[in-house]
Amino acid sequence: MKLKERLERIKVVFKDFFTKKGLIFFILFSSSFFLIFPSCSMLTRTRTEQYGEVIANTVKNNTKNKDYLSVLITPKAEKQLPTGFFEANELNGIFRGANFNFASTVNASKQQKITVTEFDDDVNYSILYANVFSNHEYQGHYRHEYFPLELMFRGNHDVDAEDYSFCYISVTQANYLLKIKGLEQNENNYQSLLRNKITINYGDNPFIYSIANIFLEQNTFYEGLISTMGDFIMTYAKHPSGFNKTFNYYFNSKPFQNAFLIERLKTIYDFSEYDININSYNISKTFDENNVISYFYENAPKDLNFLSIVLMILTFSLLASSFVFSFFKKIYFEPPVIFALCLFSLIPHLLFRIIYSLTGYTLFFSDVAAVSFFAMFLISIVCFLLLNRFIKRKECYDENN
Amino acid sequence: MMRIINALKTNNKAKIAFRWSEYILLFLYVFSLPAFSARAPWNIISYVLMALLLLNTILSTHLYSSFSWKKHFIVIPAFVLWMLVGTILFSHQYRVVLTLFLLSVTMFTFYFSFRFINDFETISKIIILALITFSLYFLIIYWKSILNFNSFSSETFRLGDYFDNVNHIGTYYSIGVSFSFYFLLFAKKMAKLYSVPGIFFLLLGMTTGSREFVITTILIVFLLLFYKLRKKKLIFLLTVISVFVVAIVLINLPFMSTMKIRFEKMVIALLGGGGEGSTTTRFLWQIYGVVLGSKNIIPGYGAYGFGNVSGVGTYTHANYSEIICNGGIIGFLLFYGYIIYIFGKTFKSNIAIKHLVSTFAVAFVILSPVSIIYTNKETYLLLGFMLAALDTSFKGEVFGTPRSNIINNNETFYMVKI
User: Fold this and answer.
1) Separation of alpha carbons B96 and B88, rounded Å
2) Gap from B276 CA to chain A (nearest CA, Å)
3) Which of the residues A157, B5, B130, B229 could staple to B31 if both were Cys, CB 3.0 to 4.6 A apart?
4) DSSP-derived secondary structure for B378-416
5) Nearest to residue B401, comparing CAs of B165, B242, B187?
6) With contact defined as beta carbons under 8 Å apart, do B342 and B135 qualify?
7) How far apart are CA A384 and CA A323, in angstroms?
């Protein structure tokens, strides 16, 4: 068919479409695509995404390495934190690439003083604390029972009567001890360090620890800990009073991951019983911390959530009614019309995306709305094809009869 | 040059030589896919065989057949091109786009090769034989592990990573099981013997510990049984129950311990019990991929876009989610539209193997949430096979159609002769 004839044909097709029934279909169809974005704006999930975005921007603009923001969860008076075993297992590798979402610590913010006598430095150590029953072996490597830290040995957790507990030291710390003893860095000498004693000073109070293992300094988890709390040593989950455990959760520059973590925290913690604070260790530029943590203390406005759901149902109903209408009115969609309708339905997506880019508000362009839009778009294409097929068959049937 | 070409065209010996070259190269290439293609530097063997097969197919088709243009040829190249657009804009993972391009060339090579051979029995024999040869190679490498019965109870007893990702090896075995089982159900007389290697493939597939292998195999067996027995509902029901009982018995055997543990964990995780990081994490990544793709709905994020943008550092482990994220709505419609087109075409087709073709199409869709298929070589092998089957109507006396005559091969259904 020549180009001129094609264009004439397309003109006729569109002219046929823009009749009264075509216009009614068009209004119902297009309004559903425009409404989906505002209708999802009041969902609780959308607000969570907004805060996820705020945290992601904070990580990018206000942290030293632009990778992580550490928040500390501490119980209010009288409440004890669990060991962190379950949480570490649940979150380990949940977003594989980062693999750094949670750690249980003491003195992560360096506001107290913990030193090690034998290391002869002025370093204020944080402690990564963990109960350990049995570390994993995998193809000749050893891995901590639930933190994704690689270890040199399986670990011997026996302690003597005078020991307060056992600890794991890093390879660098082990090398220092070997250097003091005049020993070379080889596996036998590292092994000889096990059951050696070191003194960890909590404030001015010394406590004897037995070295049970050596952890390697070579993966994302280790680097994340170093960047968010500096030098650390690992000990059994037993500490003198006054040195409280905290649960550290690590946000990053990915809004979706942050939203996941925010939802998790709001689900498992009652923030009337817990405090949440930002670990300032890797903050490079001050910011209003309330922007980040205030959401955790808010209760979800259930009415708005409900309203949003009602609006979403209405939006899907509009889309459904447009196709039901076209079915009963026997509107046949020529391919150029389908193409034009699909193109037109992308306009709200583009429009709200621009608004989101300009304002930075996820409310206008939430994950839920985007996924719903995608689903509606696909459903529309399927409906167009099925309707056309049905109408064509019916017409053939009617002609034959 | 023209004289040589004309001489070759009329020379029966040359025709036979080209045909047998096609068989041998196809056999070698299909063997090399699981055996060498994922192992550097041996993957060069695979590339060389691919090049030789392509050359032989072009020559054979030019001399003894003809190329004909079909409208659907544009779809996969369009898909690759669309991925390139997203890659240029976002991910810059050009190597993955190159892989997709080579895979599309592979698909067309298989397509024209299968069309040239034009005999389902021969094609199936070649594929089954190639997989048997690979299985022997597999046994040579892993015979100690297989004979070491103590290792069966280990959770990490998964064989195949010497060659490739164990799930890919499992997929090759499920293809072998599919062809074998098809012969068992639909072939006549002695041709049913081609189903015997299926037991071999089934057992070795189990040693990979791949849940995808088990799901794919069960799905394909179920679908083929459905096609065979759908008019005899009671027999179908009894057969399905029997297969289910056999599966329960099998999975409780010692050598199936790894598989059993992995399935138990998967079921517990799916029922909300948690603890199986692999399953719950993958589900989360699927949602993540869909969210990212929905927000960048037109271009997607290009090849390997999810791995780049998400922070996860790997693919979503679900094909539909990966394509939505990487190719946007256009990429999704192109890829899945093509599969649905193939499925739809089987309804209008009278070819003897339409049930196998539609089974593969359904399997692609159902397996989309549990594996990545759009970057797998075996996917394009099957796509080439399915399209050639639909466009050519493979001959094969085992299903009641005349055997293709090598000497007097009159191929009259082509539209354009080069």
Assistant:
1) 12
2) 9
3) B130
4) HHHHHHHHHHHHHHH--B-GGGTSPPP-STT------S-
5) B187
6) no
7) 8
8 A C-beta contact, residue B109 and residue B384: yes
CA–CA dist B200, B203 (Å, integer): 5
Q: Which of A157, A165, A161 is nearest to A194 (CA)?
A: A157
* Subunit contact B294:A90, Cβ cutoff 8 A: no
Residue A257 Cα, gap to closest chain B Cα (Å): 9
B307 burial via Cβ count (<10 Å: 0-12, 13-18, 19+): buried
**pLDDT per residue as tens digits for the range A147-195:** 888 999 988 788 888 899 999 999 999 999 999 999 999 989 999 999 9
Residue A268 forms contact with B (CB below 8 Å): no
DSSP H or E segment with residue A102? strand A102-106
Please give the DSSP secondary-structure letter assigned to residue B418. Answer: -
CA atoms lying within 13 Å on the CB side of residue A321: 14
The model's pLDDT over A324-341, given as tens digits with 9 standing for 90+, comes to 998 888 888 888 889 999
Alpha-carbon gap, residue A38 to A355, rounded angstroms: 12
Interface residue A370 vs chain B (CB under 8 A): yes
Six token digits for residue B157? 């007893």
Nearest CA in chain B to A92: B277
Neighbours of B37 (CB within 10 A): 21
Rg (chain B; Cα; Å): 22
Determine whether B165 is exposed, middle or buried from the number of CB atoms within 10 Å of its CB (0-12, 13-18, 19+). Answer: middle
Q: How far apart are CA A338 and CA A46, in angstroms?
A: 31
Strands A165-170 and A232-235: antiparallel
Option in A90, A97, A371 nearest B290 (CB): A371
ipTM, two decimals: 0.89
Predicted model pTM: 0.86
**Token duo for residue A33:** 């695509």
Q: For residue A372, what is the nearest residue in chain B, using CA coordinates?
A: B294
Q: A278 Cβ partners below 8 Å, 6+ apart?
A: A69, A70, A71, A72, A289, A292, A293
3-state secondary structure of A241: coil
Cβ pair A365:B295 closer than 8 A: yes
pLDDT for residue B270 is more than 80: no
pLDDT, tens digit (0-9, with 9 covering 90-100), for A5-15: 877 877 777 77
Question: Are B292 and A256 within 8 A, CB to CB?
Answer: yes
Element at A372 (helix H, strand E):
helix A367-400
Q: Distance, in angstroms, between A253 CA and closest chain B CA?
A: 9
- A63 token code pair: 């942290």
Q: Whose CA is closest to A281, among A152, A105, A23?
A: A105
Q: What is the dihedral of CA A385, A388, A392, A393, to 10 degrees?
A: 60
Question: Nearest by CB to A370, which of B284, B294, B332?
Answer: B294
